[in-house]
Amino acid sequence: MKFEQRNKGKLYGTLIGLAWAVFCITYCYLLPQMWHIYILSLLYIPIGLWIGYTYDRINHLASFDSLTGVANRRMLIQMLHKQITCADRNGTILSIIFIDVDKFKHINDRYGHEQGDLALQVIVKTIKNNVRFTDVVGRIGGDEFVVLCPNLSKAKSTSLVQRIKKTVALQAGEYPLSISAGISVYPEDGRTANVLLSRADKTMYCNKAKKVIHR
Q1: Of 144 and 31, which is predicted with more confidence?
Q2: Is 201 one of the catalytic residues?
Q3: pLDDT of residue 63
Q4: Tens of pLDDT along 36-93?
Q5: Within a 10 A sphere around the Cβ of 141, how many other Cβ atoms?
Q6: N or C terminus of the chain: which is more exposed, having fewer CB within 10 Å?
Q7: End-to-end CA distance of the chain
Q8: Helices 35-42 and 2-30, axial angle in degrees (round to 10)
Q9: Catalytic-role residue among 56, 135, 143, 201
């Protein structure tokens, strides 16, 4: 998904630049006496490429989180709707994993926002290293992330969460890192994006509360 969105911008810019180059060369060939206009026109080719780069950058900022590089809330919700439609059409399942960083405010307050940002980046990298290529990772809030896993059962999603938790704990440096997570599965736990996100969110908070009780 990420590569598809970003490549569109680069493709548009390249096409604009190439189209302008072809126009200039053709113009010069047909009207050789206008070669000075051709030389001047060549200066506009980088402008076409710059437009493509700018389009790519704007599209990226509109669709992806600037800190972690994963899908932002807007893009994530769009992808969730698409995944639900696809699962409904194919008669398959879709797991939604809602992840929250434990005591993130404490990390920000005690170690500073720079360390808090670093913690989020470490956790996202850990999540991405453990999910499949077909899964979608997104940042839905400050320290909250969602993973969309097509054709992944609740049991396998639970195993995935445990694997991510263990790896996150191993990444801890001067301060401990841990996450809480909740899972919902389409269509078992709901058939709409709002219901599925809400159930995964509630399950996550229940699991977080259990940690506090057992301490």
Answers
A1: 144
A2: no
A3: 80
A4: 655 656 666 666 666 666 666 666 666 889 999 999 999 999 999 999 999 999 999 9
A5: 10
A6: C
A7: 40
A8: 170
A9: 143
